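User: I'm new to structure prediction. If I give you an amino acid sequence, what do you actually give back? Let's try with this one:
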Amino acid sequence: MAVTAALAALALTAPASAAARAEAPAGCDTARTELAGTLDTLITRHGIPGAAAEVADPRCGRWTAARGLADLRTGRPARAGDRLRIGSVTKTFTATVVVQLAAEGRIGLDDPVERHLPGLIRSNGYDGRRITVRQLLQHTSGLPDHVDTLAGVPLEEWRHRHHEPRELIAAALTLPHPEGTWHYSTTNYLIAGLLVEKVTGRAVEAEVNRRIADPLGLRDTYWPGDGGDETRIRGAHSRSYLTDPARTDGTEWNLTFGGAGGALISTPADVNRFYGALFGGRLLPARWLAEMKRTVPADPDRLWPGARYGLDLIASPLDCGGWWWGHGGTVPGGHRALGAAGPGGRSVSLALNQVPATDRAEEDFLAVVSTALCAPDRGDHPKETA
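Assistant: Good question. You get back a string of structure tokens that encode the predicted 3D arrangement of the chain. For your 386 residues, that looks like this:
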């Protein structure tokens, strides 16, 4: 099946019947059409092989849209039900468990890391006695990112290799100190994962399953097996592609280098359900959700202008007023994910099988979020402070 033929493949999950469609509130059909158009832009303008989204809305219900191909070799169309690697969206799952432990009085957000993990951060001027749990989750710890130690190393030398969290943390501590007060670092979340293990006696993966995935029925959300070394994605999933001229297949990957900060596999529906439960108060009491939403300015070079960062929650202004809250994720092999909730109760989760390669492509990716959350039938959103 040729790529050009597949561009016309639009999957929209509409209400079950004509009667249901007739009863849908004004603007819902327009919202679906406009969302599909933004996905089409990613395919036709930027050459992303496949893009999919799911939207959940109190007025319009739950619906999906997809464009392009999940698999370039077979020509299989993209679907919103396909699994993918959600990358740093994993961090919000981990952060939620840490904040749950704080709500239970088992850890303090302002505890020094040294109190729970003595000696882990004590080299090259980095000192766990002066870094708090909150700073880990907010990326204000001043720690570098171990991912930077892999820059310039050929992918095939580490793509399938097993990485231990303490090994990666030790490598990060050899790097120069980052500049500025906010520095995005997956190393923070490897440490958070060890913190969960120390406090609970169970691996962070087990705690995420026990506290989040299982209670919410996230059946398509799972950690890679075999100690994290499973490189394939189980079940129906999109392939993913590197941004090289040959569009090298990057689907198989050992995500132990991301661990508690980036190894989860999920679907747009499950990501939507997770953020809906988090912001709906099912996972944390209001006081502790408010702690997650206490933000600091983020580096616009790492995110985008206007973005702020909480305890692994990004707050970003919407064109129609208000803010969206959520997180994005990128996997070197080519998957790009994002989950976001707007102030009106509408949420959206996105999946691409190739990372946007230009600033304009990234802008158009983020435009999908604004289109999904700024419904045509709505005026300005209520004011909210991030």
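You can read the tokens as a compact description of the fold. Here is one thing that stands out. The chain has twelve helices and 13 strands.
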